Amino acid sequence: MQPSSPSLSPDSPARSYPAGGLAFPHRDLTGIGQLARHEILYLLDEAEQWVELNRQSQKRADLLSGLTIINAFFENSTRTLLSFEIAGKRLGADVVNMHAATSSVKKGETLIDTAMTLNAMRADAIVIRHASSGAVRLIAEKVDCPVLNAGDGQHEHPTQALLDALTIRHALGLPKGSDLNGLRVTICGDILHSRVARSNILSLTALGCEVSVCAPPALMPAEIEVMGVKVFHDFDAALKGAQVVMMLRLQMERMQGQFIPSPREYRHLYGLSLERLAKAEAGALVMHPGPMNRGIEIDSQVADHVERSLITRQVERGVAIRMACLEVLTRRARQLPGWEPLGGENA
Ligand code: CP
């Protein structure tokens, strides 16, 4: 059973957008925080066609033929790297992956020098993942092509938030153009270190959701209320009324010191079991961006639940969203009518 559909805003679906490049007047995608609500919806709507294409046996659309996309990943990834690679290839681009572990970064090359090197190779788009918040913005300021943030430190992971919103929209049976007005979403886990939480809070609140966040006090950012969320430290209380429950992993690699008493204690207080899921709204849906720590923040019975878990559906939408982002952000380079080069701060 699915949660009841939230009420739709009066102008959805069949939404209309500003013409041409005014629909998305940004060169880069560095964060959801840079986007207006209609720009988020524009990317979601553009992704719908790619969800359809990706379900065909022939998955090629050669719109980006002749373009070069570089995926520069300075931090580990499975889903984001592979889906950006698949997205670029399905759109017909030449896609090159740069793994920091086997690059000259290991010989001491600076981030700026690496960025200038990629720029000199005349990439048409660069996708960056980096452990430092703000690294993607720094690179975007140094290169001549669109830059897409594939996750920077604790800052943002915009394409994850977009794929999550699209997954929710589909799970609720909402058509193209729909927002998520009135949907109650609870995000639980290591909110402090999570770029996924930050991007999702920005995206889901922009789309009209009522967002609650839940974490132990040590893993909750100070003054997160200013982002328009309700704050909980008691998971059972945070689940009450939730129609979507988004679980996050403990990011041990970003923790220096003792943030939780023990994984076992954490699971007891903040792990999502089937028993605990029953405290949410009947039929509540479960999400997780991955990678999961089964048996800590989420039990396998929940993660693998055929009706309730959206986790593999999130991965599927990830390819479509990344196709949409690459296609939209390269329209100026491809000189599509109405997509003239940007001036001013967006250039
Ligand atoms: N969700 C996510 O970013 O996963 P990866 O780290 O595997 O890319």
TrEMBL record:
Q: Name one GO molecular function term.
A: aspartate carbamoyltransferase activity
Which pathway is it part of?
A: Pyrimidine metabolism; UMP biosynthesis via de novo pathway; (S)-dihydroorotate from bicarbonate: step 2/3
> What catalytic activity is recorded?
carbamoyl phosphate + L-aspartate = N-carbamoyl-L-aspartate + phosphate + H(+)
PROSITE patterns cross-referenced by the UniProt entry? CARBAMOYLTRANSFERASE
Q: Where does carbamoyl phosphate bind?
A: 79-80, 129, 157, 160, 290-291
UniProt name for this protein: Aspartate carbamoyltransferase
Which keywords describe this protein according to UniProt? Answer: Pyrimidine biosynthesis, Transferase
Q: Which gene encodes it?
A: pyrB
Q: HAMAP family in the record, alphabetically?
A: Asp_carb_tr
